[in-house]
Design brief:
Blueprint: E1 3-13, E2 28-29, H1 36-44, E3 52-58, H2 64-76, E4 83-86, H3 88-101, H4 115-128, E5 133-137, E6 141-143, H5 148-153, E7 168-174, H6 197-209, E8 213-215, E9 223-227, H7 228-231, H8 244-254, E10 260-269, H9 278-299, H10 323-338, H11 342-363, H12 366-381, H13 385-392
Parallel strand pairs: 1-2, 1-3, 1-5, 3-4, 7-10
Antiparallel strand pairs: 5-9, 6-10, 7-9, 8-10
Helix pairs in contact: 9-11, 10-11
Length: 395
C-alpha cells in the first residue's frame, strides 16, 4: 500500500496567547509559545516507514497568511518528514475542481470548514496524490512507538475468517492518565444525563479483551485507517455539527460495509483541558437529533441498509432512541440552574430542542444526496496532474 497520514490542525489566529472560542474542540493560538502540531510531528520522527504527511490548516480565512507562516516554521523543524501543507489557498483550487466535477452536489462537502468537510478535504488530497490508504491522526496526539504505521495498516484490505473485507478500522487512545476508558469519577449532576461513559466503557472493555480485530461500534477519529476501497466510495458527512468520526461508521453500514476495531493500535491523546460549554452542548444536541433523523430517513429507502439503535448497543444505541429527548431536557435545565452559563443553557432548554429538531428535519436527506456524488468526485480527482503538481510544491 501507498498510505498517507492526514492531520487536521486547528488554529485560532492572533488571540495573544489565549485559546479563542471556536466551533472546534480546540484551537491553537497563533501566538501560543508551543503548538500541539509540533509535538505530534516530533513523535512521528521515530516511526518506521513514515509516509507522506498531509497537514490540513484550519483557521479563519483572514489569518491564513500568518498561520501558514507559523505552520511552515513548525514543519521546517522536522526535515526528516515529508509534509504537504494544505491551506485555504490550496483548498480553494480543490474546491473549484470539485465544483466542476459535480456542479449540482449539495452544500460544501469538501472544505476546510466543518468537521466532516475537513475530513473529506483530507481524503481529496490523498486521492489527488494517488495514495491508496489514509491514516488520520489528530494534532493533539502523539504516537506510541516506531511501529505505529505497521499497526495502522495491519489487516487493512484483508478479510476476516467470515470473508468480510477490512477496508476501514479504528484504534483507540490513552488519556493523560494512561487509561483507554472514560473516567467515570468526574461526572457530577450536570453530566448525569449527558454522559456516555458507562455504556462506552462497557463496550470498550469487551473489545479490548477480545480478538485483535473485531466489529466496531466505536471510531476514534485520531486513530483511523481507511483504504481507498472505503474512502473512494464513502464520504464523511459535511452536514453533521460534530461526531463525524462515529457518524462515518453509520455511513459505512448504510452502504453495506463495516468499521473494524484493532485493540493493539493506539495513540496518546493530550488535548488542552476540556471544558463543557453551552455552545458545545448545543452542537451535540443538534448532532444527535440530526443523526437520529438521518438514519430514520435512510431506513425508508430500499437502497440502503438499516442502522438501528439495537445494532449499536450498548453504545451508542441509546443516543438514537427516544431517550434523547429526556436527556436533553434534564441536562439543559440542571445546567441552567447550576452553571455559570445560565442564560445559554436556559435558551437550549426553551428553544434548543425545537431548533435541533428543525435542523434535523430540514437536513436529514442531504448527506445521502451528497454521498451519491462522492464516487464521481473521487474518480475525477484521482491522480489529477495539475492539482498534484500544486500540492507537491507545498511539500
Amino acid at each position: 500500500m501507498r498510505p498517507a497520514l492526514v492531520i487536521p490542525s486547528y488554529w485560532a489566529g492572533d488571540t495573544r496567547g489565549a485559546h479563542a472560542p471556536a466551533a472546534y474542540d480546540h484551537t491553537t493560538s497563533l501566538n501560543a509559545p508551543t503548538a500541539e502540531l509540533d509535538r505530534c510531528l516530533s513523535s512521528l520522527e521515530q516511526v518506521r516507514g513514515v509516509p507522506r504527511i498531509i497537514v490540513l490548516v484550519v483557521c479563519p480565512l483572514s489569518a491564513t497568511a500568518d498561520v501558514s507562516l507559523r505552520v511552515d516554521r513548525i514543519v521546517g523543524a522536522h526535515p526528516s518528514l515529508k509534509v504537504t501543507v494544505v491551506t485555504h489557498a490550496e483548498a480553494g483550487r480543490i474546491i473549484d475542481r470539485v465544483g466542476q466535477l459535480v456542479p449540482h452536489a449539495p452544500g460544501e462537502g469538501v472544505s476546510l470548514r466543518g468537521y466532516g468537510a475537513i475530513r473529506n478535504m483530507g481524503l481529496a488530497v490523498a486521492c489527488i496524490l494517488g495514495h491508496d490508504a489514509v491514516v488520520f491522526l489528530d494534532d493533539d496526539e502523539v504516537v506510541l512507538g516506531p511501529d505505529f504505521m505497521e499497526k495502522a495498516l495491519f489487516g487493512l484490505n484483508q478479510e476476516t475468517r467470515q470473508r468480510l473485507p477490512i477496508i476501514a478500522k479504528s484504534g483507540y487512545f490513552y488519556d493523560r492518565d494512561g487509561s483507554p476508558l472514560a473516567n467515570t469519577e468526574r461526572a457530577g449532576i450536570t453530566m448525569r444525563w449527558w454522559t456516555k461513559r458507562i455504556e462506552f466503557n462497557r463496550w470498550m472493555k469487551r473489545a479490548l479483551a477480545g480478538t485483535r480485530i473485531s466489529r466496531s461500534n466505536h471510531v476514534c477519529g485520531g486513530c483511523l485507517a481507511l483504504s481507498a476501497r472505503a474512502y473512494m466510495r464513502v464520504a464523511f458527512d459535511p452536514f453533521i455539527t460534530r461526531g463525524e468520526d462515529l457518524d462515518y461508521l453509520f455511513n459505512l453500514r448504510l452502504l453495506g460495509y463495516e468499521m473494524w476495531f484493532d485493540n493493539q493500535w493506539a495513540v496518546w491523546h493530550l488535548p488542552p483541558r476540556p471544558t463543557e460549554t453551552a455552545g458545545r452542548f448545543s452542537q451535540d444536541v443538534h448532532r444527535w437529533y440530526y443523526e437520529r433523523a438521518k438514519l430514520a430517513y435512510a431506513a425508508r429507502l430500499k437502497e440502503y441498509n438499516q442502522v438501528t439503535p439495537a445494532s449499536l448497543m450498548p453504545y451508542p444505541g441509546p443516543w438514537l432512541t427516544p431517550q434523547l429527548d429526556d436527556r436533553v431536557r434534564k441536562t439543559a435545565l440542571v445546567r441552567a440552574l447550576l452553571t455559570r452559563e445560565h442564560r445559554a443553557y436556559w435558551a437550549v432548554w426553551r428553544r434548543g430542542r425545537a431548533a435541533a429538531e428543525r435542523y434535523a428535519r430540514e437536513n436529514c436527506h442531504r448527506y445521502l444526496q451528497f454521498q451519491s456524488f462522492w464516487p464521481s468526485i473521487m474518480n475525477g480527482l484521482w491522480a489529477d496532474a495539475e492539482l498534484a503538481a500544486m500540492l507537491e510544491r507545498r511539500s
